[in-house]
Amino acid sequence: MDDSFVTPTSLSDGVRQALEISLRGVQELLPQDEWVKKLVRAETTGQPLRIKLGLDPTAPDIHIGHTVVLNKMRQLQDLGHQVIFLIGDFTSLIGDPSGRNSTRPPLTPEQIKANAETYYQQASLVLDPARTEIRYNSEWCEPLGASGMIQLAAKYTVARMMERDDFHKRFHSGQSISVHEFLYPLMQGYDSVALQSDLELGGTDQKFNLLMGRHLQVEYGQEPQCVLTMPLLVGLDGVDKMSKSKNNYIGITEDANSMFAKVLSISDTLMWDWYTLLSFKSLAEIAALKAEVAGGRNPKEAKVMLAKEITARFHSVAAADAAEQDFINRSKGGVPDDIPEISLSGAPLGIGALLKQANLAPSTSEANRLIDGGGVRVDGSVVSDRGLKLAAGTYVVQVGKRKFARIALV
């Protein structure tokens, strides 16, 4: 790459816009001056830049936390650049140690194949599939073989590897580190060599691995990629990053009603971070909306707008409108139009057993806890007596704000 510095005043309007879009909501863009030079070159030559995002298929579904980087990919894709959605079917066999305080158990090839089948289909709800290059890193990792792996490992030192934060902490706390875990950042970095990427995206927890790609590209005589890290999306609890293990997530294949309601459950403060990272509104539009709320507009109105935008993206505008109406009905104590219908026998049946048999509570003891908390209604009336027995008949049973069932008891 030309070492001459590109001053901001010399940038075209197109490059300025591309840089602004690149920087929206990011944690870091490293090195920014190199990225500017790449943007200038792309505009001058008409050759799109190669932008890579790798995801390991460690679970069968993607949640909206994953879409933070996918949104950035889509923004860059809309600028005309070539995005590469990389499925780490080979690296999943190793197990990513990022952010871990113990060795991550590797997945079996069968688990990886099953999970990978759904990944790209779900990512295509954000990316334009017609303009997305999909790759699997087993394509170049498996042919390396033992000798190739040894040659690759020779390009990085153990001392540098131990500078990685999670390895450093585990070593000094006496926790085990398996040798194979050192291979993970090497293999992720080698992906960038194989794909000749100009930019790699990832979460902040991936910074070490992303910089490894830059190092290895230089080792293999390539121009080094730039690195763009996005903040980790805080989950529904407002505390921890969105994660399935923490049960504070929204899956992008969840039904529209649940998705809408979950977005509305986040705090008014967290809403603005979600707007920046998840909304397709411009920063100017978000700033104007935030000013309106600061000036007295009900923040719930802004949250409803965000909930409808996210729900419409993964379903449809009509589904988002219907989800909003469903939420209104529930908040007023109304019954949704579409609720499961269940037939049970054993009348008269105790309310705790009924809730368990209808899968509205995982156990009778949990059902009793829900009753004690005032979270159970039968035909709109709150149940306060654990000993209630229902005679034969049909009842609308509600647990919490979202669970409903029409139960025919005989």
From TrEMBL:
<comment type="similarity">
    <text>Belongs to the class-I aminoacyl-tRNA synthetase family. TyrS type 2 subfamily.</text>
</comment>
<dbReference type="InterPro" id="IPR024108">
    <property type="entry name" value="Tyr-tRNA-ligase_bac_2"/>
</dbReference>
<dbReference type="InterPro" id="IPR024088">
    <property type="entry name" value="Tyr-tRNA-ligase_bac-type"/>
</dbReference>
<dbReference type="InterPro" id="IPR001412">
    <property type="entry name" value="aa-tRNA-synth_I_CS"/>
</dbReference>
<protein>
    <recommendedName>
        <fullName>Tyrosine--tRNA ligase</fullName>
        <ecNumber>6.1.1.1</ecNumber>
    </recommendedName>
</protein>
<feature type="binding site">
    <location>
        <position position="244"/>
    </location>
    <ligand>
        <name>ATP</name>
    </ligand>
</feature>
<keyword id="KW-0648">Protein biosynthesis</keyword>
<dbReference type="InterPro" id="IPR002942">
    <property type="entry name" value="S4_RNA-bd"/>
</dbReference>
<keyword id="KW-0963">Cytoplasm</keyword>
<feature type="domain" description="RNA-binding S4">
    <location>
        <begin position="349"/>
        <end position="408"/>
    </location>
</feature>
<comment type="subunit">
    <text>Homodimer.</text>
</comment>
<keyword id="KW-0436">Ligase</keyword>
<dbReference type="InterPro" id="IPR036986">
    <property type="entry name" value="S4_RNA-bd_sf"/>
</dbReference>
<dbReference type="Pfam" id="PF01479">
    <property type="entry name" value="S4"/>
</dbReference>
<keyword id="KW-0067">ATP-binding</keyword>
<dbReference type="InterPro" id="IPR002307">
    <property type="entry name" value="Tyr-tRNA-ligase"/>
</dbReference>
<dbReference type="InterPro" id="IPR014729">
    <property type="entry name" value="Rossmann-like_a/b/a_fold"/>
</dbReference>
<comment type="function">
    <text>Catalyzes the attachment of tyrosine to tRNA(Tyr) in a two-step reaction: tyrosine is first activated by ATP to form Tyr-AMP and then transferred to the acceptor end of tRNA(Tyr).</text>
</comment>
<keyword id="KW-0547">Nucleotide-binding</keyword>
<keyword id="KW-0030">Aminoacyl-tRNA synthetase</keyword>
<feature type="short sequence motif" description="'HIGH' region">
    <location>
        <begin position="57"/>
        <end position="66"/>
    </location>
</feature>
<dbReference type="InterPro" id="IPR002305">
    <property type="entry name" value="aa-tRNA-synth_Ic"/>
</dbReference>
<dbReference type="GO" id="GO:0004831">
    <property type="term" value="F:tyrosine-tRNA ligase activity"/>
</dbReference>
<keyword id="KW-0694">RNA-binding</keyword>
<dbReference type="Pfam" id="PF00579">
    <property type="entry name" value="tRNA-synt_1b"/>
</dbReference>
<feature type="short sequence motif" description="'KMSKS' region">
    <location>
        <begin position="241"/>
        <end position="245"/>
    </location>
</feature>
